[in-house]
Write the structure tokens for this entry.
Amino acid sequence: MYRAPRGTSDILPQDQPFWRYVEARAADTCRLYGYRRLDPPVFEDAGLFRRGVGEGTDIVEKEMYVFLDRGGNSLALRPEGTASVCRAYLEHGMHHQPRPVKLYYIGPAFRYERPQAGRYRQHHQFGVEALGDADPALDAEVIDMARQFFVSLGLGDTSIILNSIGCRQCRPAYLEALRAYYAPRAREVCADCQVRLRKNPLRLLDCKTPGCQPVAEAAPKSADHLCPDCAAHFTALKQYLEGLQIPYEEDHRLVRGLDYYTRTVFEVQSGEAGRQSALGGGGRYDDLIAELGGPPTPGIGFATGLERIVAGLKKQAVPVPAEPAPQLFIAHIGAEAAVAALKLGATLRRAGTAVIVATGGRSLKAQLRQANNLGIDHVAIIGEDEVRAGTVTLRRMAASEQETVPVGRLLELLRAPL
Ligand code: HAM
């Protein structure tokens, strides 16, 4: 028997209302903030992510699904959405549009991670990107938007974690300070951190190994090493957040796992805490579009993980709108009635009524049981007599009542609450 690949799952019909609810809240939030939907392909030239997300990141180095297609092109299943959106922005000349260009996406992303709770090989993201504006007010608006999205879902119990990791100008000196701090402590940290010290010192700060915690905690802070422009940007952002009355927690160890970030980085964490539980994250990436060959264009955005959101909704028993059951079940007895039932079903559907017509030649009792299991209260029963008379026996299951009605009146009766 085949099973879904490790780290992937089927989104079953009973879970669909949660997903539709999250997507509806996402679309609604985007409408309120002026973002328009863009659906990039699920695979791209692998080079896009190598260049965009960064060669030295875990995502590119260890987690990307890369394959050669039959034409010999090196493609990758997208591990995230930002690089794709920036590629599409350039490809479609959106830099000629009024700025910022605000775009959003909802769809799957793929990372070859070790599957565990909240961490999958296929997950789904709702993400937004605002391109072409470096104003810190936009950072504040994007953070407000992320927060409001969770409030609209009924998951208000979230916290915003914030940091600034500087820019091309100030980061090299900060990384030097970090290296100088870690070098004499190299023996105190884990093997992974020793590699990070050489390859990607910023990631030393978000190591999860217990032994590395005190070292990382006391490490130099990027916010203390910002150039005047980055410092002014960070100060302005915090003032805007205070103006918006958005509570946030500054965390000098928040660095994020993608290389493109500059200045602002943030995460939205669920009330239940634990780094693993980030519901969403994002930040500014002012060099990414130039890195991909475009004109210098600042950008900022965030993405959220839909599996984690759905798990949160279930855990907190947030009520989501149920899918409505079909309005009518048509049961029938005999060959002639089977034809009449199919015809009636087709007519009612064309008039916009959701109908299930019994199939499988089961007994009337079994057909009624099926209607019950489907949660359908109205059942039209057609037998030989009804076919001849042009009527149906309309039964209301919950009330155990029934009446004979002409077929022509059925629509009207179903439309009016019975
Ligand atoms: P990210 O933090 O890597 O950022 O992913 C965004 C969110 O996707 C995470 O906060 C988490 O909820 C969810 N997520 C990530 N990986 C997994 C996984 N393996 N299983 C389940 N959920 C997962 C980005 O992808 C950036 N592109 C966000 C961004 C947009 N930055 C600027 N604009």
